[in-house]
Amino acid sequence: MPQDHIDGVDPNRLRRISRWMEGHVRDGRLSGLAVQIARRGQVVFSERAGLADAATGRAVAPDTIWRIYSMTKPVTSLALLMLYEEGAFQLNQPVADFLPAFADPQVWTGEGHALTETEPARRQITIHDLLTHQAGIVYGDPHGNALEQALSAAGLDFDRGFATMAEAVEALAAFPLAFHPGARWFYGLSTDVLGHLIEVISGQTLGGFLKSRIFDPLGMTDTGFSVPEDKAGRLATLYDHAGGGYVPSASQDRCHAPVTLESGGGGLVSTMADYQRFATMLLQRGAYDGGRLLGRKTFDLMVSNQMGGDLASRGQAHFSETTFEGIGFGLGVSVMLDPVRARIVGSPGEFAWGGMASTAFWVDPVEEMTVILMTQLIPSSAYTLRRQLRVLSYQALV
Length: 398
Fold this sequence. Notes:
- By secondary structure, this protein is an alpha+beta fold.
- It has two domains: 11-71 and 221-394, DD-peptidase/beta-lactamase superfamily (Beta-lactamase); 78-202, 3-Layer(aba) Sandwich (Beta-lactamase), CATH 3.40.710.
- The chain contains eleven helices and 17 strands.
- The strands form five sheets. The chain has an eight-stranded antiparallel beta sheet, sandwiched between helices. A three-stranded mixed beta sheet has the order 8-7-17, with no helix packed on it.
- The longest helix has 16 residues, at 11-26.
- It holds the Pfam family Beta-lactamase.
- This is Beta-lactamase family protein.
- Residues 18-380 form the Beta-lactamase-related domain.
């Protein structure tokens, strides 16, 4: 429950978040959820509501394990920037220097044309393009255009059907790009390519690199690409949005051990406590108790807008884990540019991302605050949970 008194946060206003959480469970929109807010080094709100598994009545617990999907992307991006700091590559360097399958990128000529109708890309795909989703690499979508449908049929919507990410990336490189590198912003599989790039540069599996370089130093003991058998009873059930409620998900569950396809774009599972450690490190500009994962100048570059404008001005994807007006994009995270244009309370410079199962987090350096939402409902667009929670979190600041 909220503490009796915390400087700058009204406990009575925090209780509105509790009522909001309970309402989503009571009205059958969510099986269960957890919310945690930290400010100025203190956890000021940490509550859970509902069930981690509706069929058995298992309640959401402090150690519940959640599939965080695209909240994996900031972790992978940070890991890559750690290698950048070691001199492994330059941001403007072609990814083909490390992944030769991308050496001759072709661009699809678009709607109304066969996928074989392509033209040479005007330039190579750079690592910066991949970090900022400007490479022309999109997600597969069975309901999308011809390219997206073909990617989906090949298992490249969320990387189904491949034994390793090396295989998936090799298959992806055989498809044309959706647009010329750098021409626009479009959410897609770029971070999965970066995950494999980490493997090539480091000589480790992505899971091994993340464990040794990020999870172990931060004490993130329950975060990884698989849930071992002795922790399986803590995993929340995944649900699909259906008829105003939820049903057990039809999506392929990829997180039960052993896992060989380690998706840098969406494969991690984590707990509230673990992701709080990651978010706290981000709030501290790469530092944590006992060390530093990223230099502060590199970190500042990571959370700076790379778009030259907001996402609305850079072309919009069919779906994303953020809105577009007033929001920019850094190296692996969205960046708030203008709360007025975004039509939401917030602070310029805050950075964020979310996941397909409606999880979300953001870090606000101005207010010295982190907010994390954990739940398991696909798709993340089913409800405006993130915007609702933003309002409820900021209204508690006094």
